[in-house]
Design brief:
Length: 295
């Protein structure tokens, strides 16, 4: 977790419960040039009641046959063996496996299979037992800050610190899918950096790449963006995700931003030396001088 730009392709549940589709997403993410591909690990019965209603955007984007959140989530679960299969395929494709665990059973499973950093989603920022469990693994943490104010973020960090874990990257996040540009408030990246003296990234739910470039200019170096095989697929997050062509362009734009911003080292560049020779001001004679003439 250094200052290198890290791009996370958020596969989430866009595999629609299919291991083959999950592996296809790994291949596509690798071809796009991302650093990590992130899935979601959960047990539906540990997250919601069987009567819990779906969010409005989930109703719009999922099948009418899956009337409750429980039924929708149960259809999207990945079991332990499927996790191992995806990890093996990630290794084949040269992209790092990552996942968000949404319950204690899934978190412990991810720890057992060797996850070397953990992601805390915005919805768990005030779940104190969850925060303590994640922090207790002693691994770096990425903490999304959607749906929360500064006090909640501060309290979450205090809980994490009780487990002697201070290796945290905050992600500025607006939990709206897709997110409208007028509510992004990217200046919160600077606010979070100044307030907590931590690295701050961007969990990007917009439809394009422009917000990510501005976030990069504000100092974000960790980026999370949803990826899908097709925006036409049925599922809760496909409409707010980038298809393979657009995601590849997203990665290209961010890596170009990294090149353009460059380093903090104001020096005379080799490319400037010839221009300096012909354009920089120097002392010269307007008229010829006689030998040994004193100025």
């Amino acid at each position: 977790m250094n200052n290198k730009t890290i791009i996370i392709a958020e596969a989430g549940v866009n595999h629609n419960g299919s291991i083959d589709r999950a592996k296809e997403m790994v291949k596509v993410a690798s071809e796009c040039g991302v650093d990590l591909i992130k899935f979601q690990s959960f047990k539906a019965e540990n997250l919601v009641t069987k009567s819990a209603k779906k969010a409005e955007y989930q109703v719009k984007n999922t099948s009418n046959d899956l009337k409750s959140q429980y039924n929708m989530l149960k259809n999207l679960e990945l079991n332990y063996e499927q996790h191992l299969e995806i990890i093996d395929y990630c290794n084949e494709c040269g992209v790092k496996f990552f996942s968000t665990g949404f319950d204690s059973v899934s978190l412990k499973m991810l720890s057992e299979i060797g996850l070397d950093q953990f992601k805390i989603p915005s919805g768990e920022i005030n779940n104190l037992p969850y925060l303590k469990l994640v922090a207790s693994f002693g691994k770096p943490i990425i903490l999304s800050t959607g749906m929360s104010g500064m006090t909640e973020i501060e309290e979450a960090l205090d809980v994490i610190a009780t487990q002697e874990n201070k290796n945290v990257i905050l992600l500025h996040c607006v939990s709206s899918y897709p997110c409208k540009e007028e509510i992004l408030n990217l200046n919160n990246i600077l606010l979070l950096k100044d307030k907590f003296n931590l690295k701050v990234g961007f969990s990007d739910h917009t439809k394009g790449y422009e917000a990510a470039l501005l976030a990069y200019g504000l100092g974000a170096r960790t980026f999370e963006k949803h990826i899908t095989l097709s925006n036409k697929m049925i599922g809760p997050d496909h409409k707010a995700s980038l298809n393979p062509k657009d995601f590849k362009n997203y990665v290209i734009k961010l890596k170009k931003a990294e090149i353009i911003l460059g380093k903090k080292n104001k020096i005379l560049l080799p490319e400037e030396k010839e221009m300096k020779r012909i354009s920089a001001k120097s002392v010269t004679l307007k008229n010829n001088m006689k030998k040994n003439q004193v100025l």
